[in-house]
Amino acid sequence: MGKHRSVSMMDVARHAGVSAQTVSRVANGSDAVRPEMRERVQRSMDALGYRPNSAARMLKRGRFGSIGLVMFRVAGTGNLATLEGLSKAALEHRYALTLTEMPRDRDQSLEEAARIMSNLPVDAAIINVNYRTPDFETFSPHPNLKTVIIAPAAQPNCTTVGIDQRAAAREVTEHLLGLGHRTVHFISGPTASIPNRLRCRGWMETLADHGAPCPKPTMGNGDWTADSGYIAGQQLALDPSCTAIYAANDALAYGAIEALRSAGKRVPEDVSVAGTDDSYDGVVPSNKLTSIRFDNHMKGRIAFQEALGADSIKEPHQVVVPAHLVVRGTTGPAPHR
Known about the structure:
Blueprint: H1 9-16, H2 20-27, H3 35-48, H4 54-61, E1 66-71, H5 77-92, E2 96-101, H6 110-118, E3 124-128, E4 146-150, E5 159-163, H7 165-178, E6 185-187, H8 194-209, H9 226-237, E7 244-247, H10 250-262, E8 272-277, E9 290-293, H11 296-308, E10 318-321, E11 324-326
Parallel strand pairs: 1-2, 1-3, 3-4, 4-5, 5-10, 6-7, 7-8, 8-9
Antiparallel strand pairs: 9-11
Pfam family, one: Peripla_BP_3
Keywords: DNA-binding, Transcription, Transcription regulation
GO molecular function, one term: DNA-binding transcription factor activity
């Protein structure tokens, strides 16, 4: 049996009855081809099993057509929404995403994430980090690899894109204090989490601005789960002074509400509860939880655009994506006592 010959661009041109230049333009995603001609060439490519030579295209165009993405954790509503925003932006720009999750057996640092990306055929790297790595303040990107970090804090050497976590926490706390509550209790997520730290800071700052007492943050298991919120809610149900709770995410808030109701507390008549991220909207039927809504899709899109245009911006900068409060049925006026 003879050796199978790969299909060439000239083969496609002959099959479609067009010039090799037209085939080249279609293969490279050029807009200078009429839609009907593009479809004609694409049908010939599919019929012959033609696959463009990625290495040759890279040499000709000076880029790979792929953006690298390192996620320290893929699971989680916010991370998945960010990934969807990145994916849609890549599709619109005719780019591919090269995704890798940070291996648990590797050094959990920005430097290691950048090293992984530097060995892959990508034009730029996006690093999505949810907690402060040991080298967050000192990390410098590889000189030949454009790098953008998705994180809610500024980094001295890289452009960062993130949600304004402190402002979000301040808005929730202001909302609850404005309803007449003497103070607001905070249910904390993992203490190593950058978003959790910033939410906690925004909560504390707002209480201080209003001269309100600042209770110690309440923790369940120290994670983001509803079970952890339930444990924290059980603790707060025993505190007669607790009339308002701000939870670091919606799962914690829902867990706390279940614990309060199990203890005979009414929400919001006895205790108001607000969450963070509005991740249960469209997931829980008749969602009543007051929460701060994050546009993680937009965060992903902006991060992609920053990576794509990193050459045109010399100085690292911080892009802050705003959040907004969605008031529903779990917050109300402070009870009369």
